[in-house]
Amino acid sequence: MKLFSFILFSIIASSAFAQSPLMAxxxxxxxxxxxxxxxxxxxxxxxxxxxxxxxxGGKEAEMEAYYMDVMDKGKKGILSxxxxxxxxxxxxxxxxxLQQFAQEMEAQMMEKEKTLMKPVTDEYNNAIKAVCKQYxxxxxxxxxxxxxxxxxxxxxxxxxxxxxxx
Length: 166
Prior knowledge:
This protein is mostly helical. It contains four helices and three strands, in the order H-E-H-H-E-E-H.
């Protein structure tokens, strides 16, 4: 009876092992930067960033010009104590608004990046799914996540082909 149980267990175990899904890995760092959608997204993001920096630079220059004007008038003794106090308050307000604008810019940049990268990640994930279905892979890991591997299935070129990357 023990022999029968051992044989039955062996058959079930080997059957389960034989049907285990294949695992592959890809090198996303050699795929994503070559995708047309990624290149487009990065170009758009860079243009958006430059526009935001230009807006920030304009506001910063405006504050600096006001500061220089106040300092110049202060050195010449043109400002009364009340005008000097008002100018300091206005400078503090301008500084606070500039900091708030910088925080809003950062949030807008993050949202823009998220919006622009969504089609990239969708396209990449769909290509991986297509390769998995075509080659019978049950799992695909990014090469960066693997601590140790001896061999294994590298599906990088298959995903590049699915994305029409040369």
